[in-house]
Design brief:
It holds the Pfam family SelO. Residues 1-24 form the signal peptide. One of its GO terms (molecular function) is nucleotidyltransferase activity. It comes from Acipenser ruthenus. By secondary structure, the chain is α+β, with helices and mostly antiparallel strands. The chain has 2 domains: 3-13 and 289-389, no CATH class; 24-251, no CATH class. 30% of the residues lie in helices and 17% in strands. The chain has a 5-stranded antiparallel sheet with strand order 2-8-9-7-6. A two-stranded antiparallel ribbon has the order 1-3. Strands 4-5 form a two-stranded antiparallel sheet. Strand 6 (179-183) and strand 7 (186-195) form a beta hairpin. Helix 1 (2-14) runs antiparallel to helix 9, helix 7 (257-265) crosses helix 10 (366-381) and helix 9 (294-315) runs antiparallel to helix 10 (366-381). The protein is globular. It starts with a helix and ends in an 11-residue tail after the last helix. The structure holds 2-acetamido-2-deoxy-beta-D-glucopyranose (4 copies). The site of one 2-acetamido-2-deoxy-beta-D-glucopyranose (NAG) has 7 residues, from loops.
């Protein structure tokens, strides 16, 4: 496809001095396993799969040697490493407020009210990523766990504090309004309540993207309820009743460019360094912790990976639709499926979000948007770079 080549190369050429590998799909392609898994686990991968090192599988070899879990009772998930790595918001109340000097707040999910139904599951995500037998999806525990009614042992549900540039403007603190981090396995994207319509789209599209070979978060399950939420589908003032739904999403990490920006913006530089070190240590094995250029090296990897990701989006005509810095993963995986769309025939002005009148996030602008976002990442890194390292 010529438009793919055009955009891919235009974008990549601009970064050629930073690009170390521009072809092929990075091995993070099949990545989207668990949230934040250990370095040791990441090593245990082949070209399609990583395997989680759960407590059940201490002797992990790189093939599935253990049976999947049929009962969710025996599975433990943990928020321990995240809690150990970062100071936690001392306030435990679940309300919208400005949070300082922390990366996470404890936030109990509000259960989706019944009657509930499992509308869809991804067998592959359940079995190959989470090591659950797909039959576990028929249990009550599964429904309650993935819809916020019940917490698995070890889970301390967290909301992540981040910021972001939205539509070209610094939007200050954003943070997980709808999403909860349930522990080091899964992220339940639940409200604030999504509606079935958007949840089905997220469930299907993230699976499609995975099979197209594009780095993405995965969807484990889609649970729907009869609980009614009110939504203005076309943002035109016509509010309609719709059913609520929750998608359980799985990704190696949910940290975003905005996760760093908020800390830089509030001058929380120690915490900025801590988060960077954590992300590098967990997810960028090729960046050496002792290297004085490690943050630059990290930046250069994110530039490469983001260029790759956007080139892959362009190759299939995918328009993300809301390319704000809070929707851009530091691991350069596709996250936050909102008003995305696929271009039906070549049209660089294709805009999937019907309210994006100026076409800021039109498909033909995704490479520029990527550059803009990477520039915001660069600005967020400036406080931890010395003057000779600062890029302008
Ligand atoms: C799996 O986890 C156990 C316990 O944390 C650890 O001792 C072991 O080294 C891990 N194995 C691999 C291959 O990462
Ligand atoms: C781990 O598993 C492998 C293959 O399943 C086996 O050969 C090896 O002996 C095991 N190691 C331990 C320490 O149990
Ligand atoms: C992505 O960006 C939009 C707009 O900034 C934000 O409201 C939303 O929470 C983010 N995530 C998703 C799932 O759209
Ligand atoms: C679509 O674009 C409009 C206008 O820029 C923006 O306000 C809105 O948040 C976007 N929609 C979503 C779902 O992000």
């Amino acid at each position: 496809m010529s438009y793919f080549q055009h955009y891919a190369f235009a974008f990549m050429a601009l970064h050629s001095h930073l690009l170390s590998r521009v072809t092929g799909i990075d091995s993070t392609e099949s990545q989207t396993k668990v949230l934040h898994f250990n370095k040791n686990d990441a090593r245990c991968s082949d070209d399609r799969h990583f395997y989680i090192n759960t407590t059940k599988k201490n002797n992990l070899s790189c093939s599935k040697t253990t049976e999947n879990l049929h009962s969710l009772d025996v599975l433990e998930i943990s928020s321990k490493r995240l809690l150990a790595a970062f100071p936690l918001d001392p306030v435990r109340e679940n309300s919208v407020r400005t949070v300082k000097n922390c990366v996470f707040s404890v936030a109990q999910p509000t259960p989706l009210k019944g009657p509930l139904k499992v509308a869809a599951v991804s067998k592959e995500v359940l079995e190959d990523i989470l090591d659950w037998d797909v039959s576990a999806a028929e249990t009550d525990d599964f429904i309650h766990f993935l819809s916020g009614g019940k917490l698995l042992p070890g889970s301390i549900p967290l909301a992540h504090r981040y910021g972001g540039h939205q539509f070209g403007v610094w939007a200050g603190q954003l943070g997980d309004g709808r999403a909860h981090l349930l522990g080091e396995y899964i992220n339940r994207n639940g409200d604030g309540r999504a509606v079935i319509r958007s949840s089905v789209r997220e469930f299907l599209c993230s699976e499609v993207m995975h099979y197209l070979g594009i780095p993405t978060s995965r969807a484990a399950s889609l649970i729907v309820s009869n609980e009614v939420v009110w939504r203005d589908q076309f943002y035109n003032g016509h509010v309609k009743k719709e059913k609520g739904a929750i998608v359980a999403r799985v990704a190696k990490s949910w940290f975003r460019i905005g996760s760093l920006e908020i800390l830089a913006s509030f001058g929380e530089i120690d915490l900025l360094r801590k988060l960077l070190n954590f992300v590098i240590d967990e997810h960028f094995p090729s960046v050496h912790a002792s290297d004085s250029d490690k943050y630059l090296d990290f930046f250069s990897r994110v530039v490469t990976d983001t260029a790759n990701l956007i080139a892959l989006w362009m190759s299939v005509g995918f328009a993300h639709g809301v390319c704000n810095t809070d929707n851009f993963s530091l691991l350069s995986i596709t996250i936050d499926y909102g008003p995305f769309g696929f271009m039906e025939s070549y049209n660089p002005n294709f805009v999937p979000n019907t309210s994006d009148d100026e076409g800021r996030y039109k498909i033909g602008n995704q490479a520029n948007t990527g550059m803009y976002n990477l520039d915001k990442l660069r600005e967020a890194l400036n406080p931890v770079l010395d003057t000779s390292q600062q890029l302008s």
